[in-house]
Design brief:
Elements (H helix, E strand, L loop, with lengths): L12 E7 L7 H10 L3 E8 L3 H7 L9 H8 L4 E8 L2 H9 L4 H7 L4 H5 L8 E3 L3 H11 L11 H26 L6
Antiparallel strand pairs: 1-3, 1-4, 2-3
């Protein structure tokens, strides 16, 4: 037997989004698209990174040919950092962004943000975290005061409910059924 209503999505997954310096002036327009796409903007700040901060943020890209251009570009002006939340936030944000190369994005994903706002492979308008661990690291980098809850996997959430919540509910509801109070509140 199938449930009548689908399971409600819970916005527990978070990812980092950056509006890069070359499209900083399009912030409101881009945020509107983000919100209409079902994301919640949990935190937001405007900042300008130094070349050293950019080097630290993109440390995983160190040694690649484009690294100096990337750090110069990302420190060339202000940017907007946002923590986005949504059910399956990482995959939905990647889908909304499109391919990292804006030229390729225009060919294969013409409605993606990078196709619309990006210029090329480097100046692709927006950043998104690649996976859970990079999202956590990047959010901590941009929002050091943020309290990050571990993102439960589906099985971890089910295990938690079975171990802690269900026994308490069962005991409480059983006691309620035995007593049958006139005012259960």
């Amino acid at each position: 037997m199938q449930p009548l209503m689908p399971e409600p999505p819970i916005p527990v997954e978070k990812t980092l989004a950056l509006i890069k310096p070359d499209v900083f002036e399009k912030e409101e327009e881009i945020e509107d698209i983000i919100l209409r796409s079902g994301f919640l903007i949990v935190q937001k700040r405007k900042l300008q990174l130094s070349p050293e901060q950019c080097s630290n943020f993109y440390a995983d890209q160190y040694g690649k040919m484009f690294f100096p251009n990337l750090t110069a570009y990302m420190s060339s002006g202000p940017l907007v950092a946002m923590v986005l939340a949504r059910h399956n936030a990482l995959s939905y944000w990647k889908e909304l962004l499109g391919p990292s190369n804006s030229i390729k994005a225009r060919e294969t994903h013409p409605d993606s943000l990078r196709a619309i706002y990006g210029t090329d492979d480097l100046r692709n308008a927006l950043h998104g975290s690649h996976n859970f661990s990079s999202a956590e690291r990047e959010i901590r980098f941009m929002f050091p005061e943020a309290i990050l809850e571990p993102i439960p996997t589906r099985q971890a959430a089910v295990d938690y409910l079975n171990l802690y919540v269900n026994p308490t509910l069962l005991a409480g509801l059983t006691a309620l059924c035995k007593e049958k109070p006139a005012d259960p509140m």
